[in-house]
Amino acid sequence: MRNSFSTGVCLLLAAGLPPLIVSRGSLAFADEVVPTPRLEITSEFAPASLSQLFSAMQSGNRKQISLPGATWIQLQFSKPQLGVDDYLQIEDSTGEIIRLSDSQIESWDGHTPRFKGSVLNITLSSPEEDLSTGSIAIRKIIIGIGSSSLSDGVLPKGLQKMLGPDSSKLLPQGQKLNPRINPESICDASDNRVTSSNRGVGRLMDIGCTAYIVWGDRMITAGHCDRPGATLVEFNVPPSDTTGTTQPAAVDDQYFVVPDSFVSQETTDNDWAVFRVRPNQITGLFPAEAQGTLIPLSRRSQPNNVTITGYGVDGPSPNFGSSGPRNADSQTQQTGTGPANYPNNIRIEYRTDTQPANSGSPILQQATNTSIGVHFSGGCGTRGGRNAGTSFRSAAFWNAIGDSTHGTQTVAKIISYQRGVVTAFSGKGIYLSPDGRSIGGGGLTTRA
Questions:
Q1: CA distance 366 to 91
Q2: Contact, 102 vs 133, CB < 8 A?
């Protein structure tokens, strides 16, 4: 659900206007989202050389998609018409092969995972090809393009030759080449963030934010990340390339965002969102089960120091990726710690380093990995200022999570059991979720 403020911002984006930045009192700006540069090719706008890719495939048919200069490829199919034993086989440029059934393709609204590289080989197969009447057709080819394409407004040469110089018709709604420069929010002269591996914290794409696991399928991010480009959550992401271009996570670590599942607010101090994801297309697992963890929540803790863990941009001094060059650490998981204060019951402020794309990061009590809120705003600099987030003491935020009985709990173990998920909390009991979603209380979850 989007409130009227969020809807208004979305209309601005759709019109191609710059995102609206809310005044934060003494703080100058909200941490900006960092959209992944991508193109969406449909049969309507495909050049003649690609038009045959959109024709229907029958059992035994094979197609190769080759888009020189693409950093990754994702496909969306029209409603598949496959037999019970038919499957779609996809091989990427690294040699990784996956097989998708009719139901697996439908579960992600026709989408596949994202595959690294510029080449895909797809085959529609059946154990009895002579008898199969299955068919499937590509609806859309979605490709990633290098970060430099956004800064200089020019497509890679291979793609420009194939798609033509005018790429505007292939850009998703609201995205443009040559976007405005992102402000940075490093608190002092040096960036104190370090590489981290918190399994409960993921990267929200293509909007370019951070999100973290609350229950099996439920996640938290910042309210201003509730945008049409928020479609995929990734965990265990690899390094970016040397220019800061993000690389997709392994197909087992990708989760499709449930359309229209966002509940969000985006006001001066309340900048938060709660949303849901679907199970991984290959493993059938929700993030909490696959990652073996979630982020415990607390409304009571107000630690003197807080840790921010997320997927902010990175690069050399003095801008550290907010403008100018980026590096292989950009939009990979990093963490930093700094002093915090609490100016009111909802707002948390801290001199902990963050950057654009950190929006949605958990504000953590370091010793327990317990989140006390969500990061949404920059404001730090060498002359002072603070970054900021929303506390779970916000009643609207807490109620949206739907977890008023959660309190502060430490996850001891998450296991799969008879098509459900069992979560054990240290000193707090064991909970069974038959649908694998509402881990830790609420929904269909019952205390075992």
A1: 41
A2: no
Taking the chain (448 residues) in consecutive chunks of 10 residues, what is each chunk's mean pLDDT?
A: 35 32 37 77 85 89 92 91 86 92 91 94 80 82 76 67 70 57 77 95 94 90 92 96 92 94 92 95 92 90 95 90 87 96 95 93 92 92 89 92 47 46 48 46 40
pLDDT computed for residue 257 by the predictor: 96
Same fold, 4-35+181-401 and 38-144: no
Which residue, 77, 36, 75, is CA-closest to 56? 77
Instruction: List, in order, residues 6 or more apart from 127 with CB less than 8 Å away.
Output: 85
* 95 C-beta neighbours (distance < 10 Å), count: 6
What is the C-alpha to C-alpha distance for residues 381 and 114, in angstroms, rounded to an integer? 36
How many residues can be counted in the chain? 448
Classify 4-35+181-401 by CATH class.
mainly beta
> Domain coordinates of the chain in residue numbers?
4-35+181-401, 38-144, 411-447
Rounded CA gap, 38 and 238, in Å? Answer: 19
Residue 408 has a pLDDT of 40
Kind of pairing between the strands at 218-221 and 230-234: unpaired
**What separation in angstroms does the CA of 92 have from each of 86, 281, 327?**
20, 16, 25
**What is d(CA 346, CA 80) in angstroms, rounded to the nearest whole number?**
47
* 38-144: CATH class: mainly beta
